[in-house]
Write a structure and sequence with these properties.
Blueprint lengths: L1 H24 L1 H27 L5 H52 L6 H8 L1 H21 L1 H15 L2 H8 L3 H42 L5 H11 L5 H17 L3 H27 L7 H34 L6 H7 L9 H9 L4
Helix pairs in contact: 2-3, 2-6, 2-12, 8-9, 8-11, 8-12, 9-10, 10-11, 12-13
Length: about 350
């Protein structure tokens, strides 16, 4: 018996290593498709929400509105990025002069006479490091944009094949019990991902609007661009929320000459995120993801190493899908239990409430 368990554990470990290697090797193929599925779920959920507003609204009309909103949103993002790039390129001399003043001020406090932009650049290679970071971010954005047509084609074919999914489910699982179990798994995955996307979108939108008002009130340059950055980064668990505050504040350090103004902006952005992350989001999110904070961090690290920015963006929903699927097999259920927060990886909220309502023996 012990040998059987050891063999199974060894096989599982080998399969895990091979799966990780396969995901990394097929990054250029699987990452765009994963994004396409993500957008498909968002658009479909949005369309069904519009469709449920009134019985007179047909689904095709609701889907057309949802698609139009998404296309206009993407076009708006591209326009904002282009406009911000032009503004930054125009104001580079002013920002460089301000950066020199900051280094001189720090040098006077620390009594370091050689604290200038050029001397620090020569000593630490700041320009090269900044350039590598910018190029890395630009490469990620370029990668997403270059795959945009592929992602769009995937989304179109997903909607085209959507009507045939029930028939394929019947063909794959002719047995009624197996079909019911498979449908339950698919529904659980869909509900978890849709709820996560819906709540994250709403929370990101609220935080974006409030942060935009704060940045606009303090006169931060390119506030609309930073609001867009905050909206996108909030889909990345834990790290995204931190970066959503740090990045505009780093820009504010170069722009603002007043410490009071910078402090007010920092306090406003931190207050907005603190209130949302500690009041609204926990109440609305509930147990839809059913993952502990440690698993979230580990999944963020793993998917980020495999697929870069796209992996970090999709880390939470991808891990939930894997957790629910692993729970369906006796040999891998223990992994799913470890990944879950409450030890019930394949139960939805209604099932958990029914179980809690049962009297004890």
């Amino acid at each position: 018996m012990t040998n059987d368990k050891t063999i199974r554990a060894g096989i599982l470990f080998i399969c895990f290593v091979l799966a990780i290697y396969g995901l990394h090797v097929t990054q250029n193929l699987l990452a765009p498709f994963a994004l396409a599925v993500f957008f498909w779920l968002i658009i479909d959920a949005f369309a069904r929400w519009i469709d449920n507003l009134s019985s007179k609204i047909p689904y095709w009309f609701a889907l057309s509105i949802a698609l139009l909103v998404v296309v206009l949103g993407i076009a708006g993002v591209i326009i904002v990025i282009a406009d911000t790039a032009n503004d930054i390129a125009r104001d580079v001399p002013r920002y460089k002069a301000r950066l020199g003043e900051i280094f001189e001020w720090v040098g006077r406090i620390t009594r370091q006479d050689d604290w200038t932009v050029s001397s620090l650049d020569n000593r630490f290679g700041i320009s090269d490091k900044i350039q590598s970071i910018v190029l890395g971010l630009a490469a990620s954005v370029q990668g997403v944009l270059s795959n945009f047509m592929i992602i769009a084609i995937y989304v179109i074919f997903l909607f085209a094949a959507q009507s045939s999914f029930p028939k394929k489910m019947d063909d794959l699982f002719p047995d009624m019990n197996g079909r019911a179990r498979a449908q339950k798994v698919v529904l659980r995955i869909r509900e978890s991902v849709e709820k996560y996307v819906g709540v994250q979108t709403l929370m990101s939108l609220i935080q974006t609007v409030l942060s935009y008002i704060v940045m606009l009130a303090f006169g931060l340059d390119n506030a609309l661009f930073w609001a867009m950055v905050i909206f996108i980064l909030n889909f990345i668990p834990i790290i995204g929320g931190v970066l959503a505050i740090i990045l505009p504040l780093l820009f504010a350090v170069v722009q603002f000459e007043s410490v009071t103004k910078f402090g007010g902006l920092a306090g406003g952005l931190v207050l907005v995120q603190f209130v949302i992350n500690n009041t609204l989001q926990p109440k609305m999110m509930g147990d839809s993801m059913n993952m502990s904070a440690l698993v979230v961090v580990l999944s963020l690290t793993l998917w980020g190493a495999l697929w870069g920015g796209v992996g970090m963006f999709l880390a939470a929903p991808l891990t939930v899908i894997i957790m629910i699927v692993l729970a369906q097999f006796p040999s891998t259920r223990w992994i799913s239990v470890l990944l879950s927060a409450d030890g019930h990886p394949d139960m939805d909220e209604h099932e958990k409430k029914r179980q809690e309502a049962k009297p004890g023996m």
